[in-house]
Amino acid sequence: LSDLKKFNLKSGDVLFNRSSLVRSGIGWPFLVRQEDNTATFDCHLIRVKLNKEKILPEYLYIYSLSP
């Protein structure tokens, strides 16, 4: 059970969809705004943990939404 803690989502984590039923869904970002120790991510998502002194998670999220 303690191994699962490394998959818990933290505030500021940025997730990217690794797979989708439609091509346009791949790479779609999601910003974790609140820490939730009951939420985890799986192999269909890529989690990016940022150094907030170098880049703000909100900036990466909004930048990733741009075409």
UniProtKB/TrEMBL annotation:
InterPro entries: Restrct_endonuc_typeI_TRD_sf. The keyword DNA-binding applies. Keywords: DNA-binding, Restriction system. One of its GO terms (biological process) is DNA restriction-modification system. One of its GO terms (molecular function) is DNA binding. This is Restriction modification system DNA specificity protein. The lineage of its organism: unclassified sequences, metagenomes, organismal metagenomes.
